[in-house]
Design brief:
Blueprint (H helix, E strand, L loop, with lengths): L8 H11 L1 H28 L6 H4 L1 E3 L3 E3 L2 E3 L2 E3 L9 H6 L1 E3 L2 E3 L6 H23 L2
Antiparallel strand pairs: 1-4, 2-3, 5-6
Amino acid sequence: MSVEFKGMDGILKELENKCGPRKLNQITNQVLKKASEVVKEDMIQAFGAFADTGASQGEIVVSLPRAIQGVKQVKLGWNGPKGRWRIIHLNENGYTKTGRRITPRGMGTIRKTVASANKKFLDTAQDELRRFL
């Protein structure tokens, strides 16, 4: 899932004119980091509702901002010693075991959390960008 900024072109243009492209790159990286932490906290809270050992919560990580094909991106994922990244997709989508469909307690949690955190992400990003003006 991705989040697209609309109406941010004016703010970004103004920042680029004020600071220059290099400083704008640093600012957008800081903004993306701050906004992605909001989504990460929401994800940790959502996973707490059905946590058993808490390993899935503890391994949630956010990547550094990167430009891929000219678009800045931050990825949320799982990385840690317990290897939860291997089973997160089973929890999110369910699975079939011996011909029976299994629907875990946390089925669809990632999708719901990202959808609900979308507005918070955008608001945080806008607030952070305005702070630099």
